[in-house]
Amino acid sequence: MIKYLVIGDPVSHSRSPKMQNAAFEKCGLSSPYGIRHVKPEELPQFIEYARNHFRGVNLTVPHKQMVFPLVDELTSRAKCCKSVNTLLIENGHILGDSTDGVGLERALMHNFSLPVKGKRFFFAGAGGAARATAIHFATAGAKSITFANRTESKAREIINDITALGSDCICSFVAPQDRAGMLDAIKNCDCIIQATSLGLKDDDPPPFDLELLEANPALVIFDTIYKNTKLLQRAKELGIPCSGGKEMLIQQGAESFRLWTQQEPDLDAMRNGFELPPGGVEV
Ligand code: ATR
After folding, report:
1. DSSP states of 135-165 as a string?
2. How do residues 37-59 score in pLDDT, each as one tens digit?
3. In terms of C-beta density within 10 A (0-12 exposed, 13-18 middle, 19 or more buried), how is residue 222 classed?
């Protein structure tokens, strides 16, 4: 019987069912994780139905913010990030959590042995993915975060939220077209997080001028897209350690699994169960 679901609009691309069911099967819990297309206007009705029919839900675009007023309780990390990607439902009570930030933090440790604490980050992008992960990084002890984004106001909102949390993380904004500012920011970071949606389409431009990477071959690059993007191709040419977004998906899903089951998932089973979407490439 389906007890867990991923919902989104669109959602058919989601890798979560195969990945989560691989972990559930390893624990002898058959395949209780399904998928459902829920449009924004259907979300309130779906949440009320879920209250009495499911134990866990993962939410993807565009529901991560919209679900906020519909849950009964939020974990502190969901409150800080103003984003919810996981629901735990117990006796009709709905708890909202955000596992994206910790998912990226663990992915950096797994892929590069890079801790968040004390490190300097450069985020390309200030949309939903950047918001949830950067705010988590600030609360997890990142030394600094510079945001480069087409729309400055979105980066400023994240920076204001980080400041309001009383974090010691030093935050700044640089316009992607400000070459000197970008050069300075890239020179002075330990890790680039590519969190724009650029790269999903093959003819997308890179998120910034890739020549800038030559300024700092000592950094590492994590692209949240799971394709061999132009950014990753150039990084590989320059010998810069880099990876695509698969491990973040695995790790955020593993954290949801822990919340629901109080059990440790078999991460390798989840990695093996994860199938890249059409056109996806493991990087
Ligand atoms: P997600 O939930 O995947 O983060 P999102 O919230 O729509 O999606 O954010 C998309 C990110 O990609 C934003 O940083 C967006 O920049 P803006 O804030 O300026 O919109 C960035 N992005 C998308 N298309 C872009 C483009 N053509 N050029 C530059 N940045 C782009």
Report:
1. HHHHHTT-SEEEEE-SSHHHHHHHHHHHHHT
2. 999 999 999 999 999 999 999 99
3. buried
Look up the pTM and report it: 0.95
Residue to probe by mutation, ligand 1, list 82, 135, 150, 157, most atoms within 8 Å of CB: 150
Active site residues: 64
Cα of 188 vs centre of ligand 1, distance in Å, is 24
Please, what are the domains in the chain?
A: 4-98+249-273 (3.40.50.10860), 101-243 (3.40.50.720)
pLDDT tens figures, 171-214: 999 999 999 999 999 999 999 999 999 998 999 999 999 999 99
User: In the sheet that 73-74 helps form, which strands lie side by side, from edge to edge?
Assistant: 33-37, 4-8, 56-59, 86-90, 93-97, 73-74
User: What is the atom index within ligand 1 of the atom nearest the CA of 125?
Assistant: 14
* E strand residue ranges, 108-236: 120-124, 144-148, 170-174, 191-194, 220-223
**What's the 232 CA to ligand 1 centre distance in angstroms?**
18
